[in-house]
Amino acid sequence: PVAPAWQEEFEARFRARAGQIDKQPGFVSMHVMRPADDDSPYVVLTTWRDKEAFEAWVGSPDFRQAHSNPLPPEAYTGEGRLERHEIVVSARAE
């Protein structure tokens, strides 16, 4: 949950790093999703080939660099958290 006064900076940081994560082995996609209402948090959704690729990225120097200069605590209105999920059903338009 990003404080309204910090949303522009939050998004700018992801735009500035665009193109870095896609160099990681096993990376498939990333979506940074802005909340459509005041009660929802931002969602940063990354998709990886497999769990091992994700874990390798989390342990990489690029991950450490990307997270080395976080926004200050007042930029957030609550705690962020990491959620991991596995796809059980998937559909795409043809």
| Basic shape | globular
What's the helix-strand series? Answer: HEEHH
Rg, Å, rounded: 15 Å
- The helix count comes to 3
**What percentage of residues falls in helices of 4 or more residues?**
25-40%
- Unreliable residue stretches: none
Indicate the proportion of strand residues. 5-15%
Mean pLDDT: 93
Going across the biggest sheet, name each strand in turn. Answer: 1-2
Q: Structural class, please? A: alpha+beta
Per DSSP E runs of 2 or more residues, the count of β-strands stands at 2
**Termini separation (Å)?**
35 Å
Sheet having the most strands: 2 strands, antiparallel
Give a structural overview.
The protein has helices at 7-17, 51-58, 61-66, and strands at 27-33, 43-48. The longest helix has 11 residues, at 7-17. It has a two-stranded antiparallel sheet. The N and C termini lie far apart (35 Å). It has 94 residues and is of the alpha+beta class. It has 3 helices and 2 strands.
